[in-house]
Amino acid sequence: MKDQLQRLFQQAIDALVTDNTFNETIKANVQLERSKNSEHGDLACNLALMLAKKASMPPRALAEKIVQSLPDNALIEKIDIAGPGFMNIFLNKSAATAVITQILSEKEHFGRNHSGNGELTQVEFVSANPTGPLHIGHGRGAAVGDSLCRLLRANGFDAKAEFYYNDAGAQIETLMHSTHARLQGLTPESPNWPENAGYLGEYIQDVADSYKNKDTINAKDISVTAKGDPEDLEAIKHFAVAYLRHEQDLDLQAFDVEFDYFFLESSLYTDGKVEQAVDQLIANGKTYEKDNALWLKTTDYGDDKDRVMKKADGYFTYFVPDVAYHLDKWQRGFTRVINEQGADHHSTITRVRAGLQALDKGIPEGWPEYVLHQMVLVMKGGEEVKLSKRAGSYVTLRDLIDEVGRDATRFFLVSRRPDAQLTFDIDLAKSQSNENPVYYIQYAHARAASVLSKIESDKYASADLSLLTTTEEATLLKRLSQYPEVVRAAGEKLEPHQIANYCRELAGEFHSYYNADKIITENDDLSAARAQLVAAVKQVIINALDLLGVTAPDKM
RNA sequence: GCGCUCGUAGCUCAACUGGAUAGAGCAACGGCCUUCUAAGCCGUAGGUUACAGGUUCGAGUCCUGUCGGGCGUGCCA
Fold this sequence. Notes:
Blueprint: H1 2-18, E1 32-34, E2 43-45, H2 47-55, H3 59-69, E3 76-82, E4 86-91, H4 93-106, E5 120-124, H5 136-154, E6 158-165, H6 170-183, H7 203-212, E7 216-218, E8 223-225, H8 233-254, E9 261-264, H9 265-270, H10 273-283, E10 287-290, E11 293-296, E12 307-310, H11 319-331, E13 336-342, H12 347-359, E14 369-373, E15 376-380, E16 383-385, H13 397-404, H14 406-414, E17 422-425, H15 426-431, H16 437-452, H17 471-493, H18 497-516, H19 524-548
Parallel strand pairs: 5-6, 5-13, 6-9, 13-14, 15-17
Antiparallel strand pairs: 1-2, 2-4, 3-4, 7-8, 10-11, 11-12, 15-16
This protein binds one RNA strand through helix 2, strand 12, helix 12, strand 17 and helix 16.
């Protein structure tokens, strides 16, 4: 509908060009905005303000000429010229209620579009080291990443979720030594606790106990049985990684987050992909040797200094496998990749992109895209809880889900802009769990379901929607018709929190409506029309919450 | 020091590609259940959008500077 209106305004401008109001051809960027204030109509257009100078006439006068030049149409009821020169568009009544019919026929597809054209897109997120349980920071990544996948799919992209396991670095050695020390009956308090056993958390003891019991662990795509030999370091390492991967699987399951693919960093070495990438960089002349190390000329691609690729001790620095990994993503056909990561990784962006450009494989400069989320501060008892895996003080994601609930946790973590820090006060979340915004939205849905259950659906299968005349009804209709645009905007900007805001507004307006007007009245025709509106609201709440991975229960 | 990022009500956060009177929740105060779910609604109060300039018809939003927080800045991952 917006498109149709934009075309109408473009035609009006064209007409004014031919009658010489403008002395040049104007390629107008017609902007239509949803007005916040209902006195300002349904949509507002600022064309006259933007073009006043070029027409060398006052904006309000230009606005009048534009309105006069608009072709006849069935959409617009009237246009007011207001303020400095806004054209406030009031839509036809039947155009406003048409959205109900549309929602009820499209159901769960309402709001979805095909703008992504099925482009193969990958969202990589969480990607935690398999060295401990997931904490709330990973939770934010999981909530945002999963929601991004859902949003992209709603916008017509073929989105795949991927988890990258850093199972090949120094942190895995640390995990091995930590488990080994526990197997020997040591604790971090022991005077002879080894220095290279850096993980001090109690969960390492669980890993050691399980290893000693010769347990079998079934993680996502592997099955490992512990040898039980406390001196076999390789076996310990292998088992510990599997054990903790399984723990993370359970965390993700509890959070209702699914991945299409788990990628192991170690496979990049065993498949020779790291070597291949390095050889290619050397062959392309993008490297040099200095101080016994191999350097990449990242300054050619906007970095502020060159970076070491291969250390003097012969090992690669961490970003080298990252480059190889991203080359692999590209070769798998992901023309679009979005990496959802903690903001502490932002320095890798320049390096990974630089490495990819240096490979000279025709990868676009801005590829891959990044969505970075800021740290989550966890408060408990009025104090900040440090999320240090090494020190062992720890708030796990699963603790949080148990205490606060899955829907509330997900909603909370995804309802803020990712690039702003957020504070998660555990005491507050627990004590006010009934007042969490997610319940407000779910309650709106439950209320709608409850009312509808009181009318047989064939009683409102058809209805005269022109009976919807109250201001609350007009407000709701406007909000509903806005939903497809919100899905599109949130998808384009990769901002799931816009969906959360929309949910809150729709729920609030529905609660107001519910209190202001009876849905079921003496008048059967009116009841039918209102029931259709309620059914449409209910459907859109379901659709929107689904994009956030939050359920919409019928009863609360 | 340099780079990125954020600064909005007492607290936690919104504000669509720059739009009209900056909005919610929590906390505070006052009302609304004989009636479709009160996990709700209505109202009151709360703001120099950190500060100072600039750009323009118009700035919380863009630019410059200052102050403050976070992250990064390693031959750590």
